[in-house]
Structure formats: structure tokens, C-alpha cells
Amino acid sequence: MSVREVVVLGTASQVPTRHRNHNGYLLRWDGEGILFDPGEGTQRQMLRAGVAAHDLNRICVTHFHGDHSLGLAGVIQRINLDRVPHEITAHYPKSGRRFFERLRYATAYRETVELTEVPVDTDGVLATTPAYTLHARKLSHPVESYGYRLVEPDGRRMLPDRLAAHGIKGPDVGRIQREGALGGVTLDDVSEVRRGQRFAFVMDTRLCDGVYALAEGCDLLVIESTFLHDEEELAVEHGHLTATQAARVARDAGVRHLVLTHFSQRYAEPDEFGRQARAAGFEGELTVAHDLLRVPLPKRR
Fold first, then answer.
1. Gyration radius of the chain over CA positions
2. Active-site residue (options: 67, 204, 219, 291)
3. φ, ψ (nearest 5 deg) of residue 200
4. Per residue in 258-269, pLDDT tens?
């Protein structure tokens, strides 16, 4: 059975707290796992969440501030210690290659796994697989930062009433799907487009074109909301978003499920983030993230 969900490993910004680990987010997409922004302590959070090194296929780093990348050393060494049998691909801003290399070889260990580095230096497609296309868009932060967007190809949804009206049943259903037509009946006559699901991951950034492009039409958007609305000037100064800004982006982009995360340590209780997101006009499904939470992608439209 396929699983599509985000496992939240950490929700703190800059420094961890008693209840919030540094960042870390695993996207399970059917049989593949994509780890985003492994901050310090990610390896232990994976253990607590039931995530194994074998579950990882890609690592995507938005930028090289410590709360988004210091866990790389432990995660990479764990991948090798556990002898993960498949290739792992790592994406990160090309300008930070020296940081990735330092973290990858922070201490001595035996390399047993093929880890392929595919740095990012421009907007565009990073990878295309039968299950999804992975895109990157540049964000606005004091250091170079990219957000990531995953788009599933559109498919077809067969319509039972139209199939019945044309007398198509049994093995012929599969045949018309494969061949596109059967006895004068086309696939368009008995099916409709099934829109592929879309996911985006947006971390440290001010409002910019990249934020909106990543969020557009997403079924699930994981986005930073470091500050509350009354600290908007501070957010802009340090290259972050407020809960209100993140919610307005989600509202205008038609996001179905919004996940707020990356909270400043100045806020002990995150409930106000949800209240401000609603006040900003976001009416879709809303989650204020906490560590070890699992958030499923919404059901298909």
C-alpha cells in the first residue's frame, strides 16, 4: 500500500528547545523517502519516529545555516553504517558545497553507500522519475536558499458510468487504458484527467516570487512561520516569514493543507500561529506542526 505523508522530525528555528528539536522533515512518497533540512539531532528523531536509514532516497537541503544542516554528518554516517543498498542523491545550494563536503567528511568512517551530489544553482527541474518531478526555486534569505516542489504527473480516472454506457468491462478496461482507444471509443470518452498531487517545502525566506511559485496549487505546503504578525519587521530583517504571511501565501496559491513550522524559541506555545493563519483568511486544512507529527497528503481531488 502506498503512503504519502510528511513525518515532522523537528520544528525549532535557530536553537532547539525542550520540546522542539532542530529542523528535519521526511516526505514519504509511495516507496521513496526524501529528507529535508536535517538539523542537529535528526538521527535520534528518526529513531523516535520509526524512520530508518533505508527509508531515505534523497536529501534536500534548503541552505547552510546550522539548524537546517548540522544533522547531515550523523545522517550520512548512519546511511553508511547501515549499508543502505541503494543510491542516495543529495541536493543543496551549489554555493555551499564546501559546507556539505565538510559535514559529509566531518569525522572518519567507512563509506559503503553511493551518495551522489546534485547541487542547485538555478531555478528548474532537479530530477524526473515516473512518480514525480522535483523542482527548485530560489528564495530570499541572508545566505543562498532554495525551496523544493514535487509534482506528480497527471493521470486518468476511469468513469464507471461511461464505461458501462459503452459496454466496456473486464480486461477491456485495461486495454483502453494502454492503447487509448477501443472499437471507436477513445480514452477521453470514458475517463477524465486525474490531477497529480503537489507538495512544496519552503524554509527560511522573506516573501518573494519563489515562495508563491513553490506554493501554487499545492495539496500540502510545509512552510516556515518563524514569527507572529507583530514581529513582521524583525522577520523581514532576518529573512523569515510570519504566520500571517505564510497563510496569505497559502490562501492566494490555493493550497489545500497548510503546515506551519520553524518557530522561534521566543514562543512557548504555538497555538497563536494557527489563530493568526485563520485570521489571515486561510480556510483550508491547517496544521501547526509539532515534533514527531505525521501529516498525510490530502486525498486526491
1. 21
2. 67
3. -135, 150
4. 999 999 999 998
